[in-house]
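Chain A, query sequence.
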Amino acid sequence: MVPSLKDSHFKERGRPRAFDTDAVLDSAMLVFRQKGYHATSIGDLGQAMQLTTGSIYKAFTDKQTLFATVFARYLSQRNGSLASRLAQCENGREQLEALLNFYVDSVRDVEGERGCLVAVSAVELQTLDEELAGAVSAALMRNLQNLQQIIRLGQQDGSVNPELDCDATASLLLCIVLGMRVAGKVAATRPDASIIPLALKVLD
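Chain A, predicted structure.
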């Protein structure tokens, strides 16, 4: 088990620093969410993670590998939180309402200013290398497929209009939730729960 970091000093000159992996990944995650991949420097990461450049490269190889690890952790955390909310719903429409509330909660106050790692990475998609771009594209596709699945569930249980084009409706809802994360970066444009009843009207 990796010991937690107790202080900010090396016990011996040149000796690798012990650190809590989850803690440093979460620190790196915050920087990537706020700045995006390209604008984040190793210096930014070192300051946030409280690690030297050498320690970062030794532990994670390079910035690309670190980002990929952080991105996977971000998705796992977000998907787990969302899944726990959806599990409490009785039908497809309630799941979609819970999903929208989840994203509204995600843009409140400081959490909104931190931004969404998927949304900020999607903006940079064309400038990411093939592996990272593939991971971001796959995450967006999974979000779309999840929405499609919930809409179909609602159409089957009668809570969503069965005549709706499932794919088009899912695409619209994906645009809404991604737009919420982008708008949430600025307090003046940050959405609240008042938009949810309007968004749900597309299901009628």
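The mean pLDDT is 88. The first helix runs from residue 21 to 35.
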